[in-house]
Amino acid sequence: MADNLYLLIILVPFFIALVNLILPVNIRKILTFLALLYGLYLSYQLYVVQPATENFYFEPVFAADQLSIFTLIFIQILSVIILIFSLKGLEKQIERAFFVLYPMTVAFCNGVVISENMIVFLAFWGMSGITLYLFALLGRTADTPQTAKKTFIIVGGSDAFLLMGFVLMGFIHAGNEWSLSAIHISLNSGWAIVAFIFVLMAAFAKAGGFPMHTWVPQFSKDAPVESAAFLPASLDKLLGIYLLARMVTTLFSIDLLVNMIIVTLGALTVITAVMMAMIQHNGRKLLGYHAVSQVGYMIMGVGSGSVLAFAGGLFHMINHTIYKSNLFLTLGSVEKKTQSNNLDDLGGLGRVMPITFIMALIGALSISGIPPFNGFFSKWMIYQGLLQKTAELTAGYQIWMLVCLILAIFGSALTLASFMKFIHAVFLGQLPENLKTVKETVFNHWLATGLLSLLCIVFGIFAVQIPLRLFIAPIVAEQGWAVLGFPGLYKPLLIVLLFLVIFLIGWLVFMLTRNIRYDDVYLGGMSPSEKFRVLGTEFYNEVRSMQPFKALYDAAEKRFFDVYELGKNLTFALSGLLQKLHPGQLQLYLLYILIGTLIFIWVI
């Protein structure tokens, strides 16, 4: 069986996707679930067996090292859990297409991470981009076609750069038969630098890194919530950061300046996205911007050149997929019950959806980096690694690194502020009159979010014992790096114990002193109207109007910083210029031919 593991983990979900084209929806659900469970079993077998490279006509096609197995396992875990959420509650109009695209996407993502050959890698990478576009088309909003087109152009356009980058790498490192593991290019020539930039663009576009990130918030807002949790929050993050990790470990030899540039791009990703998230009134768009912001920490860690920060970046990658999927799905549960994801329309749902509230609160605490949840430990590793790296640098680089580190820490504080807004706006405060009949979500929804919440807790308290020891330490060891060390005195179990003591003291004080009286609220001697309800988003409107933020927010809302809009405007401007240069006059065309011939002769 070991010889067939590579093929099975791709072909089984792909075959199920093809069969689902002709089957009833309920059968599609069952087969998809069984196929993904089998994929999880196969990934475990790969983890245990680690078979040799699979060749096709003596050319290496598939292979698995510790990094690819690690990524593969979490592709299966996230796919299974998000599928549980999708089994009931999905919109009827998209069910048939959804359960065809779902296993097909998993098959393509599996193919990406076990591909050893450049051409095979490109094929699976490109096909995963096509299914991303098709998932975007499943949305039911008025902006869905535009969002799908934007997603396709940014991600598909970056695929073209990836192709050019791989072609350049093949010519620079001739004789390697297009094997990814045989390539290791030093950035000591112009073409090598161009190849690195092209591949980096593809990784950033897939993961949602600045400035290739602008498709993520739009996709999160307009696609089905299950698709948002499945792709930009989970699988696309795994693929993008996987490629970045490949670049800095095996594909290229990175020097300090390149490390610093990558760290800077990561810091910009953190701060720009979290600033945009703070002012959002659409819950899904808020989560979309945070899906971008958290990528910045992964980029900073993986690209820093520090072993501890690199490990922290990989750990943060899986932590992000866990808590961000949880947040998307809890908001999805709310949306399906209330028919709204606008924060201004929600509030007080914690009392009628208590299970969903607890799951969302765990996700919010995790993404905000509150101990002992998983988001804290991975961020802590990144910060410690960057500080260790800073101590090794010269004065100028130290200032540069510290500025990036300060931006990242400030971004973490703003993340906490943003999720205080999210939790208050959705689950706390006054329950609107039209939502008083809302009930808790269905079983499969809170089962899926419950599993994700459990992982947030387990990966926080037992971070060293489970994810780091089982998955990430082997990656570090395979690279020949030093064994991971964890400076500081952080003890997760001690933190849990202290929190429990504080909670018990607070509960005892409350029970001994409680004297609660309930009364109606009056405004000007009359019962307050619904329009006077205090919204969870009101405070953050002040941030939007502050200077100099107001000018930046105005420019952002006009899409001055959107690479898609900039590219579109440049394309139309160039098209207009070419139209003016072609008025249909024969003598002008002859002049163009003459000028072109002279330029050609001069170049030759």
> How many DSSP E strands?
4
Level of helix content?
over 70%
Question: What share of the residues does DSSP label as strand, in percent?
Answer: under 5%
How are the strands of the largest sheet arranged? 1-2
Kindly report the average pLDDT value. Answer: 91
Number of helices: 22
| Element-level helix/strand string | HHEEHHHHEHHHEHHHHHHHHHHHHH
Radius of gyration: 26 Å
Q: Report the uncertain regions.
A: none
What is the global morphology? globular
Describe what this molecule looks like in 3D.
By secondary structure, the protein is mainly alpha-helical. Among the domains are: 255-483, no CATH class; 563-603. Helices cover 71% and strands 2% of the residues. It has 22 helices and four strands. The protein has helices spanning 5-19, 25-49, 66-86, 95-114, 118-136, 144-172, 190-207, 215-222, 225-251, 256-278, 283-302, 307-338, 354-367, 374-391, 395-427, 443-461, 464-478, 492-513, 538-545, 549-557, 563-580, 586-603, and strands spanning 54-56, 59-62, 185-186, 252-253. The strands form two sheets. The chain has a two-stranded antiparallel sheet with strand order 1-2. Helix 1 runs antiparallel to helix 2 (25-49), helix 5 packs antiparallel against helix 6 (144-172) and helix 11 packs antiparallel against helix 12. The N and C termini lie far apart (58 Å). The mean pLDDT is 91.
